[in-house]
């Protein structure tokens, strides 16, 4: 699952970081994991790894911000393995072009996209603020719950990505074993379609969304 998330993030980063005089973006990818998580061995030399407190996930994002000295941090979670690179790219472009401090497609009051294609973009100044002000274990574990409170919207520029069709009833995130089985089935169908496309065309297929 993590491989698919990392792959989508890397595709988006590669696309956005291409030479482009009008944007001049530099996008990097990091995997944020708890200290001593054995998954580190699988991703060694594949992606930048940042380790931190298992329950204070927010602190890991602040570490990421400081490590890259970034203007923004983009949050894509490991329970959304089928998130396409195009969604990540759209969120980053919308946030940076619009100069927003927080942009997402996850606000439950406005969600129209799949549950499982979640992406959030947070500015450095906002992430620094919430890392200093968020004190409850819930906010530290879930990172952006503090962001989405109404009082912050008065001080920071917030925006939302809203689709043209309501697909919010479709669940592609993984929280249970049943979710895992369903998503694994969909992922296998994608892999099988790629292989068939390569057979039919005689060329390497471009897969995912």
Describe it for me?
- By secondary structure, the chain is α/β, with parallel strands linked by helices.
- The protein has two domains: 2-169, Spore Coat Polysaccharide Biosynthesis Protein SpsA, Chain A (Alpha-Beta Complex); 176-209.
- 44% of the residues lie in helices and 11% in strands.
- The protein has eight helices and six strands.
- α2 links the parallel β1 and β2.
- The protein is globular.
Our count of domains comes out at: 2
Number of helices: 8
Strand content: 5-15%
Give helix % range.
Answer: 40-55%
CATH superfamily of the largest domain: Spore Coat Polysaccharide Biosynthesis Protein SpsA, Chain A
The pLDDT mean sits at 90
CATH architecture of the largest domain: Alpha-Beta Complex
Residue runs with pLDDT of under 50 for 5 or more positions: none
User: Structural class, judged by helices and strands?
Assistant: alpha/beta
What distance separates the N and C termini?
16 Å
Query: What is the CATH C-level name of the largest domain?
Result: Alpha Beta
Q: Count the strands?
A: 6
Please outline what is shown here:
Helix content is 44%, strand content 11%. It is built from eight helices and six strands, in the order H-E-H-E-H-E-H-E-E-H-H-H-E-H. It has helices at 2-16, 39-43, 57-68, 85-98, 124-133, 137-142, 150-153, 177-201; strands at 30-34, 48-52, 72-75, 102-104, 120-123, 158-160.
What secondary-structure arrangement, pairings included, does this model have?
Elements lengths: L1 H15 L13 E5 L4 H5 L4 E5 L4 H12 L3 E4 L9 H14 L3 E3 L15 E4 H10 L3 H6 L7 H4 L4 E3 L16 H25 L8
Parallel strand pairs: 1-2, 4-6
Antiparallel strand pairs: 3-5, 4-5
Helix pairs in contact: 1-4, 3-5
């Amino acid at each position: 699952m993590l491989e698919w998330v990392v792959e989508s993030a890397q595709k988006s980063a590669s696309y956005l970081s291409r030479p482009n005089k009008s944007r001049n973006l530099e996008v990097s990818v990091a995997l944020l994991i708890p200290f001593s998580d054995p998954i580190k061995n699988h991703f060694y030399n594949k992606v930048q790894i940042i380790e931190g407190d298992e329950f204070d996930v927010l602190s890991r994002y602040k570490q990421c911000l400081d490590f890259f000295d970034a203007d923004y941090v983009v949050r894509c979670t490991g329970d959304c393995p089928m998130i396409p690179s195009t969604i990540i790219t759209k969120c980053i472009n919308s946030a940076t072009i619009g100069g927003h401090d927080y942009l997402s497609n996850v606000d439950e009051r406005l969600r129209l996209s799949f549950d499982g294609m979640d992406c959030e973009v947070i500015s450095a100044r906002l992430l620094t603020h919430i890392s200093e002000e968020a004190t409850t274990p819930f906010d530290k574990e879930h990172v952006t719950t503090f962001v989405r409170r109404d009082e912050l919207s008065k001080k920071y520029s917030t925006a939302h990505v809203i689709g043209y069709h309501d697909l919010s009833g479709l669940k592609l995130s993984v929280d249970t074993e049943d979710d895992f089985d369903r998503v694994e089935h969909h992922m296998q169908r994608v892999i099988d379609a790629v292989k068939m496309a390569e057979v039919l065309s005689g060329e390497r297929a471009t897969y995912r969304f």
